[in-house]
Protein backbone atom coordinates (compact mmCIF):
# COMPACT_ATOMS: atom_id res chain seq x y z
CA UNK A 1 0.00 0.00 0.00
CA UNK A 2 1.38 3.39 -0.99
CA UNK A 3 1.84 6.30 1.37
CA UNK A 4 -0.71 9.06 0.84
CA UNK A 5 0.63 12.17 -0.92
CA UNK A 6 -1.63 15.15 -0.15
CA UNK A 7 -0.40 17.63 -2.83
CA UNK A 8 -2.33 20.61 -1.45
CA UNK A 9 -5.52 18.76 -0.59
CA UNK A 10 -7.15 18.99 2.82
CA UNK A 11 -7.36 16.18 5.33
CA UNK A 12 -10.38 14.34 6.65
CA UNK A 13 -10.32 15.58 10.24
CA UNK A 14 -12.39 14.09 13.04
CA UNK A 15 -14.66 17.11 12.80
CA UNK A 16 -15.20 16.59 9.07
CA UNK A 17 -15.87 12.86 9.58
CA UNK A 18 -18.47 13.75 12.18
CA UNK A 19 -20.16 16.21 9.80
CA UNK A 20 -20.12 13.59 7.04
CA UNK A 21 -21.81 11.15 9.41
CA UNK A 22 -24.63 13.64 9.96
CA UNK A 23 -24.92 14.37 6.25
CA UNK A 24 -25.40 10.86 4.85
CA UNK A 25 -26.73 7.41 5.61
CA UNK A 26 -23.55 6.24 7.33
CA UNK A 27 -19.77 6.55 7.26
CA UNK A 28 -16.95 4.18 8.07
CA UNK A 29 -13.30 4.58 8.95
CA UNK A 30 -12.85 0.82 9.41
CA UNK A 31 -9.57 -0.18 7.75
CA UNK A 32 -10.91 -3.27 5.97
CA UNK A 33 -13.81 -1.29 4.51
CA UNK A 34 -11.47 1.50 3.45
CA UNK A 35 -9.12 -1.04 1.85
CA UNK A 36 -12.01 -2.58 -0.07
CA UNK A 37 -12.97 0.85 -1.38
CA UNK A 38 -9.47 1.67 -2.57
CA UNK A 39 -8.77 -1.60 -4.37
CA UNK A 40 -10.40 -2.52 -7.69
CA UNK A 41 -9.98 -5.63 -9.87
CA UNK A 42 -6.72 -4.42 -11.42
CA UNK A 43 -3.03 -4.88 -10.63
CA UNK A 44 -2.79 -1.28 -9.41
CA UNK A 45 -1.85 -0.91 -5.76
CA UNK A 46 -4.63 -0.43 -3.23
CA UNK A 47 -4.92 3.19 -2.12
CA UNK A 48 -7.66 3.46 0.51
CA UNK A 49 -9.56 6.65 1.24
CA UNK A 50 -9.57 8.22 4.70
CA UNK A 51 -13.27 7.57 5.12
CA UNK A 52 -16.11 5.86 3.24
CA UNK A 53 -19.45 7.68 3.09
CA UNK A 54 -22.62 5.86 2.00
CA UNK A 55 -25.25 7.99 0.30
CA UNK A 56 -28.87 6.86 0.09
CA UNK A 57 -30.26 9.75 -1.97
CA UNK A 58 -29.30 12.72 -4.10
CA UNK A 59 -29.67 15.12 -1.17
CA UNK A 60 -27.01 13.21 0.74
CA UNK A 61 -24.67 13.22 -2.27
CA UNK A 62 -25.06 16.99 -2.47
CA UNK A 63 -24.27 17.37 1.22
CA UNK A 64 -21.14 15.19 1.01
CA UNK A 65 -19.85 16.97 -2.09
CA UNK A 66 -20.34 20.38 -0.47
CA UNK A 67 -18.46 19.31 2.64
CA UNK A 68 -15.58 17.99 0.52
CA UNK A 69 -15.47 21.22 -1.49
CA UNK A 70 -15.47 23.30 1.69
CA UNK A 71 -12.49 21.34 3.07
CA UNK A 72 -10.85 20.82 -0.32
CA UNK A 73 -10.85 17.06 0.29
CA UNK A 74 -10.74 14.62 -2.65
CA UNK A 75 -13.94 12.72 -3.40
CA UNK A 76 -13.96 9.38 -5.24
CA UNK A 77 -17.31 7.94 -6.42
CA UNK A 78 -17.74 4.17 -5.93
CA UNK A 79 -20.20 1.75 -7.51
CA UNK A 80 -19.16 -1.90 -7.20
CA UNK A 81 -15.38 -1.53 -7.40
CA UNK A 82 -14.99 -3.70 -10.50
CA UNK A 83 -12.94 -1.27 -12.60
CA UNK A 84 -9.68 -2.38 -14.21
CA UNK A 85 -7.52 0.75 -14.26
CA UNK A 86 -7.31 1.96 -10.68
CA UNK A 87 -10.34 4.24 -10.95
CA UNK A 88 -11.16 4.01 -7.23
CA UNK A 89 -7.65 4.58 -5.89
CA UNK A 90 -7.36 7.44 -3.42
CA UNK A 91 -3.75 8.59 -4.01
CA UNK A 92 -4.37 11.79 -2.04
CA UNK A 93 -6.66 10.32 0.61
CA UNK A 94 -10.12 11.83 0.97
CA UNK A 95 -13.67 10.53 0.90
CA UNK A 96 -14.92 7.54 -1.06
CA UNK A 97 -18.61 8.09 -1.80
CA UNK A 98 -20.30 4.69 -2.04
CA UNK A 99 -23.48 4.84 -4.15
CA UNK A 100 -24.50 1.19 -3.80
CA UNK A 101 -27.46 2.09 -1.60
CA UNK A 102 -28.86 4.30 -4.37
CA UNK A 103 -30.25 1.25 -6.13
CA UNK A 104 -33.81 2.16 -7.08
CA UNK A 105 -35.28 1.58 -10.53
CA UNK A 106 -37.33 4.76 -10.65
CA UNK A 107 -39.25 4.39 -13.87
CA UNK A 108 -39.64 2.00 -16.80
CA UNK A 109 -41.44 3.28 -19.88
CA UNK A 110 -42.18 0.13 -21.85
CA UNK A 111 -43.85 1.91 -24.76
CA UNK A 112 -40.92 4.27 -25.26
CA UNK A 113 -38.31 1.64 -24.33
CA UNK A 114 -36.44 3.66 -21.73
CA UNK A 115 -35.80 3.54 -17.99
CA UNK A 116 -34.69 5.91 -15.26
CA UNK A 117 -32.46 4.40 -12.58
CA UNK A 118 -30.29 5.46 -9.69
CA UNK A 119 -26.56 5.10 -10.19
CA UNK A 120 -26.16 2.14 -7.83
CA UNK A 121 -28.45 -0.18 -9.78
CA UNK A 122 -26.47 -3.00 -11.39
CA UNK A 123 -27.07 -4.17 -14.94
CA UNK A 124 -28.12 -7.57 -13.57
CA UNK A 125 -30.71 -6.02 -11.28
CA UNK A 126 -32.15 -3.90 -14.10
CA UNK A 127 -32.44 -6.84 -16.46
CA UNK A 128 -34.04 -8.97 -13.74
CA UNK A 129 -36.61 -6.19 -13.26
CA UNK A 130 -37.24 -6.12 -17.04
CA UNK A 131 -37.55 -9.90 -17.35
CA UNK A 132 -41.28 -9.92 -18.12
CA UNK A 133 -41.41 -6.80 -20.28
CA UNK A 134 -39.78 -8.15 -23.44
CA UNK A 135 -37.07 -5.48 -23.05
CA UNK A 136 -33.48 -5.53 -21.87
CA UNK A 137 -30.46 -3.35 -21.25
CA UNK A 138 -27.86 -5.20 -23.33
CA UNK A 139 -24.59 -3.51 -22.37
CA UNK A 140 -22.73 -6.33 -20.64
CA UNK A 141 -19.22 -5.88 -19.27
CA UNK A 142 -17.81 -9.02 -17.67
CA UNK A 143 -18.64 -7.90 -14.13
CA UNK A 144 -22.14 -7.13 -12.85
CA UNK A 145 -21.13 -3.50 -12.50
CA UNK A 146 -23.26 -0.59 -11.34
CA UNK A 147 -24.85 1.39 -14.14
CA UNK A 148 -23.38 4.61 -12.78
CA UNK A 149 -19.92 3.10 -12.90
CA UNK A 150 -20.55 1.71 -16.38
CA UNK A 151 -21.54 5.17 -17.58
CA UNK A 152 -18.58 6.80 -15.85
CA UNK A 153 -16.14 4.46 -17.60
CA UNK A 154 -17.90 4.36 -21.00
CA UNK A 155 -18.23 0.59 -20.67
CA UNK A 156 -19.42 -1.86 -23.30
CA UNK A 157 -19.14 -5.65 -23.60
CA UNK A 158 -19.92 -8.60 -25.82
CA UNK A 159 -23.07 -7.03 -27.29
CA UNK A 160 -21.38 -3.81 -28.44
CA UNK A 161 -21.22 -4.97 -32.07
CA UNK A 162 -25.02 -4.72 -32.18
CA UNK A 163 -26.02 -2.23 -29.49
CA UNK A 164 -23.00 0.01 -29.07
CA UNK A 165 -21.50 1.22 -25.80
CA UNK A 166 -22.81 3.16 -22.83
CA UNK A 167 -22.34 6.35 -24.85
CA UNK A 168 -25.04 5.27 -27.29
CA UNK A 169 -27.39 4.01 -24.59
CA UNK A 170 -27.46 6.81 -22.02
CA UNK A 171 -30.14 9.32 -22.98
CA UNK A 172 -29.65 11.62 -20.01
CA UNK A 173 -28.05 11.93 -16.60
CA UNK A 174 -28.29 13.70 -13.28
CA UNK A 175 -24.93 14.69 -11.84
CA UNK A 176 -23.85 16.50 -8.71
CA UNK A 177 -21.08 18.91 -9.67
CA UNK A 178 -18.00 19.74 -7.59
CA UNK A 179 -19.69 22.71 -5.89
CA UNK A 180 -22.73 20.66 -4.90
CA UNK A 181 -25.02 22.00 -7.61
CA UNK A 182 -27.21 19.49 -9.46
CA UNK A 183 -27.14 19.33 -13.27
CA UNK A 184 -29.59 17.37 -15.40
CA UNK A 185 -28.61 16.58 -18.97
CA UNK A 186 -30.36 15.07 -21.97
CA UNK A 187 -33.87 13.69 -21.65
CA UNK A 188 -36.12 11.00 -23.06
CA UNK A 189 -36.10 12.14 -26.69
CA UNK A 190 -34.04 9.94 -29.00
CA UNK A 191 -32.31 12.93 -30.56
CA UNK A 192 -31.63 16.57 -29.78
CA UNK A 193 -29.55 19.34 -31.33
CA UNK A 194 -30.11 21.77 -28.46
CA UNK A 195 -26.69 22.98 -27.42
CA UNK A 196 -23.66 21.09 -26.19
CA UNK A 197 -24.04 17.35 -25.60
CA UNK A 198 -23.30 17.31 -21.88
CA UNK A 199 -24.55 13.74 -21.51
CA UNK A 200 -21.80 12.48 -23.81
CA UNK A 201 -19.31 14.59 -21.89
CA UNK A 202 -20.25 12.89 -18.63
CA UNK A 203 -20.24 9.35 -20.04
CA UNK A 204 -16.61 8.31 -19.82
CA UNK A 205 -15.60 11.13 -17.44
CA UNK A 206 -14.69 8.59 -14.71
CA UNK A 207 -16.00 10.65 -11.81
CA UNK A 208 -13.63 13.54 -12.58
CA UNK A 209 -16.37 16.05 -13.47
CA UNK A 210 -19.06 15.15 -10.97
CA UNK A 211 -21.00 12.35 -9.28
CA UNK A 212 -23.61 10.65 -11.47
CA UNK A 213 -26.70 9.95 -9.37
CA UNK A 214 -29.32 9.02 -11.98
CA UNK A 215 -29.37 7.80 -15.58
CA UNK A 216 -32.02 7.77 -18.28
CA UNK A 217 -31.27 4.63 -20.31
CA UNK A 218 -32.27 3.34 -23.71
CA UNK A 219 -33.80 -0.14 -23.60
CA UNK A 220 -34.00 -2.64 -26.44
CA UNK A 221 -36.51 -5.34 -27.40
CA UNK A 222 -35.47 -8.92 -26.87
CA UNK A 223 -35.01 -10.63 -30.25
CA UNK A 224 -37.72 -13.04 -31.37
CA UNK A 225 -35.14 -15.65 -32.34
CA UNK A 226 -31.48 -16.24 -31.57
CA UNK A 227 -28.74 -18.78 -32.06
CA UNK A 228 -25.08 -19.02 -31.00
CA UNK A 229 -22.21 -20.82 -32.68
CA UNK A 230 -18.49 -21.41 -32.18
CA UNK A 231 -15.98 -21.88 -34.98
CA UNK A 232 -12.26 -22.72 -34.79
CA UNK A 233 -9.48 -21.37 -37.04
CA UNK A 234 -5.91 -22.38 -37.87
CA UNK A 235 -4.54 -19.03 -36.63
CA UNK A 236 -5.69 -16.02 -34.65
CA UNK A 237 -5.18 -13.81 -37.72
CA UNK A 238 -7.48 -16.09 -39.75
CA UNK A 239 -10.20 -15.61 -37.16
CA UNK A 240 -9.73 -11.84 -37.21
CA UNK A 241 -9.96 -11.79 -41.01
CA UNK A 242 -13.21 -13.76 -40.74
CA UNK A 243 -14.56 -11.11 -38.37
CA UNK A 244 -13.96 -8.38 -40.95
CA UNK A 245 -15.70 -10.50 -43.60
CA UNK A 246 -18.66 -11.09 -41.29
CA UNK A 247 -19.13 -7.41 -40.54
CA UNK A 248 -18.90 -6.50 -44.23
CA UNK A 249 -21.41 -9.22 -45.14
CA UNK A 250 -24.23 -7.40 -43.37
CA UNK A 251 -25.08 -10.37 -41.15
CA UNK A 252 -27.06 -9.25 -38.09
CA UNK A 253 -24.48 -10.18 -35.48
CA UNK A 254 -25.55 -9.91 -31.85
CA UNK A 255 -22.13 -10.92 -30.51
CA UNK A 256 -18.76 -11.59 -32.12
CA UNK A 257 -15.95 -12.65 -29.79
CA UNK A 258 -12.52 -13.99 -30.78
CA UNK A 259 -10.38 -16.03 -28.36
CA UNK A 260 -6.86 -17.29 -28.90
CA UNK A 261 -5.76 -20.80 -27.94
CA UNK A 262 -4.43 -19.60 -24.57
CA UNK A 263 -7.84 -18.13 -23.77
CA UNK A 264 -9.49 -21.43 -24.70
CA UNK A 265 -7.08 -23.25 -22.38
CA UNK A 266 -8.07 -20.86 -19.57
CA UNK A 267 -11.75 -21.26 -20.52
CA UNK A 268 -11.48 -25.07 -20.35
CA UNK A 269 -9.65 -25.10 -17.01
CA UNK A 270 -12.02 -22.73 -15.22
CA UNK A 271 -15.23 -23.94 -13.51
CA UNK A 272 -18.22 -23.38 -15.79
CA UNK A 273 -21.44 -24.94 -17.02
CA UNK A 274 -20.45 -24.80 -20.70
CA UNK A 275 -18.58 -27.73 -22.32
CA UNK A 276 -14.85 -27.65 -23.02
CA UNK A 277 -13.66 -26.37 -26.40
CA UNK A 278 -11.10 -27.50 -28.95
CA UNK A 279 -7.71 -25.91 -28.17
CA UNK A 280 -7.54 -23.50 -31.12
CA UNK A 281 -8.33 -19.85 -31.93
CA UNK A 282 -12.10 -19.72 -31.71
CA UNK A 283 -14.85 -17.34 -32.76
CA UNK A 284 -17.92 -17.12 -30.53
CA UNK A 285 -20.90 -15.79 -32.48
CA UNK A 286 -24.51 -14.98 -31.73
CA UNK A 287 -27.17 -14.21 -34.31
CA UNK A 288 -30.48 -12.56 -33.47
CA UNK A 289 -33.42 -11.63 -35.63
CA UNK A 290 -37.15 -11.54 -36.19
CA UNK A 291 -37.54 -15.27 -36.93
CA UNK A 292 -35.76 -18.61 -36.86
CA UNK A 293 -35.62 -18.47 -40.66
CA UNK A 294 -33.82 -15.11 -40.64
CA UNK A 295 -31.38 -16.29 -37.98
CA UNK A 296 -30.65 -19.50 -39.88
CA UNK A 297 -29.93 -17.53 -43.06
CA UNK A 298 -27.54 -15.22 -41.19
CA UNK A 299 -25.78 -18.28 -39.76
CA UNK A 300 -25.46 -19.79 -43.24
CA UNK A 301 -23.85 -16.63 -44.62
CA UNK A 302 -21.60 -16.38 -41.57
CA UNK A 303 -20.43 -19.97 -42.00
CA UNK A 304 -19.49 -19.27 -45.61
CA UNK A 305 -17.49 -16.18 -44.54
CA UNK A 306 -15.67 -18.19 -41.89
CA UNK A 307 -14.99 -21.11 -44.25
CA UNK A 308 -13.36 -18.71 -46.72
CA UNK A 309 -10.83 -17.82 -44.00
CA UNK A 310 -10.12 -21.43 -43.01
CA UNK A 311 -12.79 -21.76 -40.33
CA UNK A 312 -14.16 -25.17 -39.37
CA UNK A 313 -17.72 -26.35 -38.96
CA UNK A 314 -20.06 -24.37 -36.73
CA UNK A 315 -20.96 -25.91 -33.38
CA UNK A 316 -24.37 -24.46 -32.53
CA UNK A 317 -26.00 -23.55 -29.23
CA UNK A 318 -29.63 -22.90 -30.07
CA UNK A 319 -31.50 -23.28 -26.77
CA UNK A 320 -31.76 -20.32 -24.42
CA UNK A 321 -30.13 -22.20 -21.52
CA UNK A 322 -27.31 -23.45 -23.74
CA UNK A 323 -26.61 -19.92 -24.99
CA UNK A 324 -26.76 -18.55 -21.46
CA UNK A 325 -24.18 -21.07 -20.26
CA UNK A 326 -21.89 -20.27 -23.19
CA UNK A 327 -21.94 -16.51 -22.62
CA UNK A 328 -21.76 -16.84 -18.82
CA UNK A 329 -18.56 -18.82 -19.30
CA UNK A 330 -17.24 -16.20 -21.72
CA UNK A 331 -17.89 -13.49 -19.14
CA UNK A 332 -15.64 -15.28 -16.62
CA UNK A 333 -12.66 -15.23 -18.98
CA UNK A 334 -10.83 -12.45 -17.12
CA UNK A 335 -10.86 -14.50 -13.93
CA UNK A 336 -10.11 -17.69 -15.86
CA UNK A 337 -7.03 -16.00 -17.33
CA UNK A 338 -5.82 -14.96 -13.87
CA UNK A 339 -6.34 -18.54 -12.67
CA UNK A 340 -3.59 -19.64 -15.06
CA UNK A 341 -1.27 -18.06 -12.47
CA UNK A 342 -3.13 -18.54 -9.16
CA UNK A 343 -3.00 -15.54 -6.87
CA UNK A 344 -2.25 -13.08 -9.68
CA UNK A 345 -3.74 -9.72 -10.59
CA UNK A 346 -4.04 -8.64 -14.20
CA UNK A 347 -2.40 -5.97 -16.31
CA UNK A 348 -5.26 -5.64 -18.81
CA UNK A 349 -4.81 -4.09 -22.23
CA UNK A 350 -7.84 -2.60 -23.96
CA UNK A 351 -6.89 -1.79 -27.55
CA UNK A 352 -9.53 -0.83 -30.09
CA UNK A 353 -8.49 -0.47 -33.72
CA UNK A 354 -10.10 -0.02 -37.13
CA UNK A 355 -11.44 -3.41 -38.21
CA UNK A 356 -9.09 -3.51 -41.20
CA UNK A 357 -6.11 -3.55 -38.80
CA UNK A 358 -7.48 -6.07 -36.30
CA UNK A 359 -5.83 -9.20 -37.74
CA UNK A 360 -2.44 -7.48 -37.99
CA UNK A 361 -2.55 -6.08 -34.45
CA UNK A 362 -3.76 -9.30 -32.85
CA UNK A 363 -1.11 -11.33 -34.66
CA UNK A 364 1.66 -8.90 -33.67
CA UNK A 365 0.49 -8.98 -30.07
CA UNK A 366 0.41 -12.79 -30.01
CA UNK A 367 3.97 -12.85 -31.38
CA UNK A 368 5.04 -10.33 -28.72
CA UNK A 369 3.60 -12.47 -25.91
CA UNK A 370 5.42 -15.53 -27.29
CA UNK A 371 8.70 -13.66 -27.72
CA UNK A 372 8.60 -12.34 -24.15
CA UNK A 373 7.79 -15.83 -22.83
CA UNK A 374 4.95 -14.74 -20.54
CA UNK A 375 1.40 -15.85 -19.89
CA UNK A 376 -0.95 -13.62 -21.89
CA UNK A 377 -4.32 -14.86 -23.19
CA UNK A 378 -5.73 -12.69 -25.99
CA UNK A 379 -9.44 -12.24 -26.59
CA UNK A 380 -11.95 -9.55 -27.27
CA UNK A 381 -15.03 -8.03 -28.81
CA UNK A 382 -13.66 -8.51 -32.28
CA UNK A 383 -16.78 -7.30 -34.07
CA UNK A 384 -15.95 -3.70 -33.16
CA UNK A 385 -12.16 -4.05 -33.23
CA UNK A 386 -11.68 -4.17 -29.44
CA UNK A 387 -9.39 -6.80 -27.91
CA UNK A 388 -7.60 -7.49 -24.64
CA UNK A 389 -4.44 -9.18 -23.45
CA UNK A 390 -4.58 -10.36 -19.85
CA UNK A 391 -1.09 -10.32 -18.35
CA UNK A 392 -1.26 -12.00 -14.91
CA UNK A 393 1.32 -10.69 -12.45
CA UNK A 394 2.22 -12.12 -9.06
CA UNK A 395 3.64 -10.21 -6.09
CA UNK A 396 6.66 -12.54 -6.17
CA UNK A 397 7.41 -12.03 -9.86
CA UNK A 398 10.97 -10.80 -10.44
CA UNK A 399 11.45 -7.28 -11.82
CA UNK A 400 12.54 -8.67 -15.19
CA UNK A 401 9.24 -10.53 -15.64
CA UNK A 402 7.20 -7.48 -14.69
CA UNK A 403 9.27 -5.38 -17.12
CA UNK A 404 8.41 -7.81 -19.92
CA UNK A 405 4.72 -7.46 -19.16
CA UNK A 406 4.99 -3.69 -19.20
CA UNK A 407 6.86 -3.77 -22.52
CA UNK A 408 4.07 -5.81 -24.10
CA UNK A 409 1.48 -3.34 -22.81
CA UNK A 410 3.44 -0.30 -23.99
CA UNK A 411 4.23 -1.69 -27.45
CA UNK A 412 0.63 -2.73 -27.98
CA UNK A 413 -0.67 0.74 -27.10
CA UNK A 414 1.86 2.43 -29.37
CA UNK A 415 1.05 0.08 -32.28
CA UNK A 416 -2.63 0.68 -31.66
CA UNK A 417 -2.30 4.46 -31.73
CA UNK A 418 -0.15 4.30 -34.87
CA UNK A 419 -2.95 2.28 -36.51
CA UNK A 420 -5.54 4.98 -35.72
CA UNK A 421 -6.90 3.21 -32.65
CA UNK A 422 -7.33 4.04 -28.98
CA UNK A 423 -5.49 2.96 -25.83
CA UNK A 424 -8.81 2.08 -24.19
CA UNK A 425 -11.98 0.95 -25.93
CA UNK A 426 -14.14 0.32 -22.86
CA UNK A 427 -12.20 0.14 -19.57
CA UNK A 428 -11.42 3.84 -19.29
CA UNK A 429 -8.18 5.68 -18.62
CA UNK A 430 -8.18 5.63 -14.82
CA UNK A 431 -4.70 5.83 -13.31
CA UNK A 432 -3.13 3.30 -15.63
CA UNK A 433 -3.35 4.93 -19.07
CA UNK A 434 -2.92 8.60 -18.20
CA UNK A 435 0.57 8.69 -19.68
CA UNK A 436 -0.83 7.89 -23.14
CA UNK A 437 -3.45 10.65 -23.28
CA UNK A 438 -1.24 13.25 -24.92
CA UNK A 439 0.19 10.69 -27.34
CA UNK A 440 -3.33 9.73 -28.41
CA UNK A 441 -5.04 13.11 -28.43
CA UNK A 442 -2.31 15.73 -28.79
CA UNK A 443 -1.53 18.79 -26.69
CA UNK A 444 -4.43 20.90 -27.95
CA UNK A 445 -7.09 18.27 -27.17
CA UNK A 446 -5.64 17.50 -23.75
CA UNK A 447 -5.51 21.24 -23.08
CA UNK A 448 -9.21 21.49 -23.92
CA UNK A 449 -9.93 18.60 -21.54
CA UNK A 450 -7.99 20.36 -18.80
CA UNK A 451 -10.01 23.54 -19.40
CA UNK A 452 -13.27 21.60 -19.04
CA UNK A 453 -11.97 19.98 -15.86
CA UNK A 454 -10.97 23.36 -14.38
CA UNK A 455 -14.33 24.89 -15.29
CA UNK A 456 -16.37 22.15 -13.62
CA UNK A 457 -13.96 21.24 -10.83
CA UNK A 458 -11.69 24.23 -10.08
CA UNK A 459 -10.43 22.70 -6.82
CA UNK A 460 -9.62 19.37 -8.54
CA UNK A 461 -11.38 17.40 -5.81
CA UNK A 462 -13.33 15.07 -8.12
CA UNK A 463 -11.43 11.78 -8.37
CA UNK A 464 -7.99 13.42 -8.74
CA UNK A 465 -5.18 11.40 -10.27
CA UNK A 466 -7.36 9.92 -13.02
CA UNK A 467 -7.70 10.57 -16.76
CA UNK A 468 -5.57 13.70 -17.06
CA UNK A 469 -1.79 13.41 -17.34
CA UNK A 470 -0.03 15.42 -14.66
CA UNK A 471 0.87 18.98 -15.63
CA UNK A 472 4.55 18.11 -15.33
CA UNK A 473 4.13 15.35 -17.91
CA UNK A 474 4.38 12.49 -15.43
CA UNK A 475 1.33 10.61 -16.63
CA UNK A 476 1.04 8.18 -13.74
CA UNK A 477 1.97 10.56 -10.91
CA UNK A 478 4.51 9.90 -8.20
CA UNK A 479 2.04 8.36 -5.76
CA UNK A 480 0.70 5.93 -8.36
CA UNK A 481 4.18 5.06 -9.63
CA UNK A 482 5.59 4.32 -6.21
CA UNK A 483 2.57 2.20 -5.34
CA UNK A 484 2.72 0.13 -8.51
CA UNK A 485 6.44 -0.46 -8.08
CA UNK A 486 6.02 -1.41 -4.43
CA UNK A 487 3.28 -3.92 -5.22
CA UNK A 488 4.84 -5.50 -8.28
CA UNK A 489 8.43 -5.68 -7.08
CA UNK A 490 8.06 -6.75 -3.46
Automatic annotation (TrEMBL):
Instruction: Report one GO cellular component.
Output: mitochondrion
Q: Where in the cell is it found?
A: Mitochondrion
The protein's required cofactor(s) are namely: FAD
- Main localization category: mitochondrion
GO MF, one annotated term: FAD binding
Ranges for region Disordered: 463-490
Judging by the UniProt lineage, the source's domain of life is Eukaryota
Q: Which residues form the FAD-binding PCMH-type domain?
A: 44-222
In this chain, composition skew of type Basic and acidic residues spans: 478-490
Report the EC code(s) recorded for this entry: 1.1.2.4
Q: Write down the top EC class of this protein.
A: oxidoreductase
Keywords, A to Z?
A: FAD, Flavoprotein, Mitochondrion, Oxidoreductase, Transit peptide
**What PANTHER family does the entry give?**
D-LACTATE DEHYDROGENASE (PTHR11748), D-LACTATE DEHYDROGENASE, MITOCHONDRIAL-RELATED (PTHR11748:SF111)
| Protein family (similarity comment) | Belongs to the FAD-binding oxidoreductase/transferase type 4 family.
Could you identify this protein by its name?
Answer: D-lactate dehydrogenase (cytochrome)
Q: Which organism is it from?
A: Diacronema lutheri
